[in-house]
Design a protein that fits this description.
- The protein is of the alpha+beta class and 423 residues long.
- The chain contains nine helices and 21 strands.
- It has helices spanning 12-18, 37-53, 56-60, 82-89, 118-126, 131-137, 161-169, 241-246, 361-368; strands at 2-3, 92-103, 106-116, 140-152, 155-158, 253-256, 259-262, 265-266, 274-275, 285-286, 291-298, 305-311, 319-320, 325-332, 334-337, 340-343, 349-350, 373-377, 380-386, 392-398, 402-409.
- Strands 8, 9, 11, 12, 14, 18, 19, 20 and 21 form a nine-stranded antiparallel beta sheet that branches. Strands 1-2-3-4-5 form a five-stranded antiparallel beta sheet.
- Strand 15 (334-337) and strand 16 (340-343) form a beta hairpin.
């Protein structure tokens, strides 16, 4: 049984909307398959992880070609309600190995899901407990989901991902009733805590309190009011490039675009070379203890993207997205040109132990040890390193090019005062 990671995103109405997506009707190979039960279970495990991480980029690699046309694989920013993260963080799943079915180019597997009973959580919170305590005390409920797959492009791919979303992530109860109270916009200046540092980076982005676009999905609170003007949080790090090279992966530092970034760090450090998306522009506000997922666009090459989570920590009121803190970053040095990937060295990076663009799989393993999870997909190898507090580093290597991408995640449920932020 595998334990779910902390979920990176949740938007209930968006999930419900997924149930209306059309089914998949992919092109299938003509050859008959052998018993691929183990391969099917591996794909299903990886798929469930991406579903519960809302990691659409990874998920897109695990679904059929027809499924890739779904709206969730496009651009967008989603505002998050942390209560759902906490519920799903206590969810576990287990495959029913005997249920695996393989018939030519189609397969399926049943998974038993155990999660906190949302009705019980709501009842306990109504008696005065906070969310974490209520989730811990609540009864659990069990149900089974069936994952369906098709054999396409020489691999097993999930064909009913929208059904899995609906079954796991759509609660019968109104989850917003147990969400934190909506913050009120006031004229009160926030109390900002900063750490004493050797190096201080001055903010370079001015807050622009003019909301220009509502979020792409319905959420509990929409960014429809003018966000207050606040001072961006100061940021500092004692790391240098040499320190990054000598660091361990779980120090969560990277030398990126010519500067040291220690997660979590403020968005304005990236603003010189990366633009916010049209779905999440300056003026889009983020509520207290909520975050959005956004795809930043390179100012030098608009085919290169940087996926980030922009979080409101360090403030006690809503903020403009330009003041947000980045808790997750994912950069891929490739972009699609026609029907193939083109590799770019425009945005260079150096990870701990000197891992950089072009480093080999062996280089990564020699630097960090055996990964927590390893996935081999055609000519790619994905190495994932995780600690006990849901923090992770994931590196993708192409067999002929070496390292091409990385993603760093720090869990906002485990941040301490050493980061200089409240959360």
């Amino acid at each position: 049984m595998r334990r779910f990671k902390i979920i990176t995103a949740e938007c209930l109405a968006f999930i419900i909307a997924l149930s209306s997506l059309t089914g998949c009707d992919s092109s299938l190979l003509s050859k008959e398959k052998k018993d691929d039960s183990e391969d099917i279970l591996n794909v299903c495990d990886d798929f469930l992880d991406t579903v519960l991480d809302f990691d659409f980029k990874k998920m897109k690699k695990l679904v059929t070609e027809e499924s890739k046309k779904a709206d969730c694989f496009g651009d967008g920013a989603y505002q998050i309600e942390p209560i759902t993260d906490k519920i799903l963080a206590e969810t576990v799943y287990e495959a029913d190995a005997d249920s695996v079915s393989v018939k030519k180019e189609e397969g399926s597997a049943d998974y038993d899901i155990t999660m906190p009973d949302v009705s019980d959580v709501m009842e306990i919170m109504g008696e005065g407990s906070d969310a974490s305590e209520a989730i811990e005390k609540a009864d659990t409920k069990e149900f089974t989901v069936t994952i369906e797959l098709e054999y396409e492009d020489d691999q097993w791919l999930v064909s009913n991902f929208e059904d899995v979303f609906e079954e796991i992530l759509s609660f019968e109860e109104d989850i917003t009733e147990i969400s934190e109270t909506e913050p009120q916009v006031t004229e009160t200046e926030p109390v900002i805590e900063t750490t004493e540092t050797e190096v201080t980076v001055e903010p370079t982005v001015e807050s622009t309190p003019e909301p220009t676009l509502e979020p792409t999905a319905e959420v509990h609170t929409k960014p429809t009011v003018e966000p207050p003007v606040v001072e961006p949080l100061e940021y500092s790090t004692d790391y240098t490039l040499d320190d990054v090279i000598n660091a361990n992966w779980d120090d969560f530092v990277v030398y990126f675009d010519g500067q040291v970034l220690e997660l979590p760090f403020p968005y304005y450090l990236l603003a010189d070379r990366w633009d916010l998306s049209e779905e999440c522009p300056a003026g889009y506000y983020i509520n207290v203890e909520q975050y959005v997922i956004d795809r930043l666009v390179s100012k030098e090459d608009d085919t290169l993207y940087l996926w980030v989570e922009l979080y409101n920590i360090g403030y006690d009121l809503p903020i403009d997205v330009v003041n947000a803190i980045i808790t997750y970053m994912e950069y891929d040095s490739r972009h699609i040109d026609g029907d193939k990937y083109i590799h770019s060295e425009l945005h260079e990076f150096t990870l701990p132990k000197g891992i950089t663009l072009g480093s080999t799989v062996d280089d990564v393993i020699n630097a960090y040890g055996e990964p927590t999870n390893r996935t081999d997909i055609k000519e790619s190898v994905i190495l994932e390193y995780k600690d006990d507090e849901y923090n992770s580093l994931t590196i993708t290597c192409e067999l002929d090019e070496g390292v091409v991408s990385f993603e760093y995640r720090v869990s906002h449920y485990y941040w301490g005062e050493e980061y200089g932020y409240e959360g």
